[in-house]
Write a structure and sequence with these properties.
Helix 3 crosses helix 6. The relative contact order is 0.09. Helix content is 33%, strand content 21%. The strands form five sheets. Strands 1, 2, 3, 4, 5 and 6 form a six-stranded mixed β-sheet that branches. It folds into three domains: 164 residues, Beta-grasp domain (Ubiquitin-like (UB roll)); 53 residues, no CATH class; 102 residues, 2-Layer Sandwich (Enolase-like, domain 1), CATH 3.30.390.50. With 452 residues, it is of the alpha+beta class. The radius of gyration is 23 Å and the shape is globular. About 2% of the residues have low confidence.
């Protein structure tokens, strides 16, 4: 595949396999070795670059998705003249330097959209970039210093400065046209899916490359759906909100519509990895991958969400609760894809929540998750739905807890009994006592909040 894109303000051409990672193209094809490989799974941030204005992990971006794109690496900054890099040096924020290119670009991505961040905002923005020798305090001070000197305002004024990329930004070669598909719109994608039902769909790829690292075979055919406009966006329709399956979690988290109507979903979206992961991971991918540890399914279960599936034959809608037939298995037909998710708008009196617990406080895969929806009728429980995830092949409703709570006032005694019932409804295979106990406590926490 011959690939053209803008790199550090200049048009470049590279010969690459469609599934080569952007990281490999930069280092091996083009010789830009400032971008480092650490974990190869999107957890360390050493490979961070800015792609089309967004921070991404280049180890999780396929070369075919870079066509016509705009990439900024550490080599594209002004070196000693760059105020952010200068601040890192002056504050002693550099030692071995392995993590620093990604760290600097993560800081630049933050300051380009938030020129005057708080210390907590800096910590959050850099949470996906690990450093093993310098110590984070000096790094935070360096970002503070660059912000105080107006770095963010300066680079915001530079946005959009790039060479024009040729219209023909990718040329498939040899047998690639029969194995790699780059549709321009949803209609073309559905035609390809009908013709090749075994094709693997590529969007954010935040699970795709880690799965390959774990030994999953590389697919024979792939189709890129990352840029399909019909799969993007968030809109309100009569009685529900519709979220395109290709909408990223960073877009969900920042949506005013989602914050207003589904605050638990907005909050959940901030927990899907670090910023670079949220900029790539999509709500559709989180659903159809069928991982037991996926965060969005339990919440979408209790919110009564509907999965909109589409093929050349037409559209069908099914409850998200019926999307799974087993562990990592869905009821999607070979010629179908998930187009969007519809969520009924809740009443203003309702409350919703999502909690997760993992092996660490942040950027963690769920060891357990709990989601809930409640509507009180006066002081008594009216409608209530509770679900738990990460402890079974698919999320489960806590039906006995729901049954017990309906019609009751949320007294301390009732909440404590609900806690005990919930803890017995889950059947985790490992860490049983811990997961049961924490599930009950999280249900208790939600009910006390709903009561107040």
């Amino acid at each position: 595949m011959k690939l053209r894109f803008t790199l550090n303000g200049q048009e470049v051409t590279a010969e690459a396999s469609p599934l080569d990672r952007l990281l490999d193209v930069l280092r091996e094809q083009l010789g830009y070795v400032g971008t480092k490989e650490g974990c190869g799974e999107g957890e360390c941030g050493a490979c961070s670059v800015i792609l089309n204005g967004k921070l991404v992990n280049s180890c999780l971006v396929p070369a075919l998705q870079v066509r016509g794109g705009d990439v900024l690496t550490i080599e594209g900054l002004d070196g000693e003249e760059d105020a952010l890099q200068k601040a890192f040096v002056e504050e002693g924020a550099v030692q071995c330097g392995f993590c620093i290119p990604g760290m600097v670009l993560a800081a630049r991505a933050l300051l380009s959209t938030n020129p005057n961040p708080t210390r907590e905002e800096i910590k959050w923005a850099l949470a996906g970039n690990l450093c093993r020798c310098t110590g984070y305090e000096r790094i935070f001070r360096a970002v503070d210093k660059a912000a105080a000197e107006g770095y963010g305002r300066k680079i915001a004024a530079e946005k959009g400065r790039r060479d024009n990329v040729s219209e023909e930004s990718v040329k498939l070669q040899g047998s690639e046209p029969s194995r790699v598909f780059l549709p321009d719109d949803l209609e073309e994608a559905l035609e390809i899916l009908e013709r090749y039902p075994d094709v693997t769909l590529l969007s954010g790829c935040t699970d795709f490359y880690p799965d390959l690292m774990k030994g999953k075979p590389e697919p024979e055919r792939v189709m890129d759906i990352w840029n399909l406009k019909e799969l993007k966006g968030i809109k309100l329709e009569e009685g529900y909100m519709e979220i395109g399956s290709g909408t990223t979690f960073s877009e969900v988290a920042s949506s005013d519509l989602v914050k207003e109507h589904f605050p638990a979903l907005a909050y959940l979206s901030t927990l899907i990895g670090a910023v670079a992961i949220q900029n790539r991971a999509t709500i559709g991918g989180n659903l159809v991958n069928g991982s037991a540890a996926a965060d969005s399914p339990p919440l979408l279960f209790v919110l009564g969400a509907i999965a909109v599936l589409q093929s050349k034959r037409g559209v069908r809608e099914i409850p998200v609760t019926e999307l799974y037939s087993g562990y990592r298995k869905t009821v999607l037909r070979p010629d179908e894809l998930l187009k969007s998710v519809k969520i009924p708008l809740p009443s203003v009196k309702s409350r919703q929540f999502f909690y997760k617990r993992g092996s660490r406080l942040a950027l963690t895969i769920s060891r357990l998750s709990v989601a809930g929806f409640i509507e009180l009728d006066g002081e008594a429980v009216g409608d209530i739905r509770l679900a738990a995830g990460s402890m079974s092949p698919v999320p489960i409703f806590l039906t006995e807890t729901e049954k017990y709570l309906r019609g009751k006032k949320l007294t301390e005694e009732v909440i404590d009994e609900a806690r005990l019932i919930a803890s017995e409804e889950v059947s985790p295979r490992t860490s049983k006592d811990y997961r049961k106990r924490v599930t009950g406590r999280l249900i208790s926490r939600f009910l006390k909040g709903a009561r107040s």
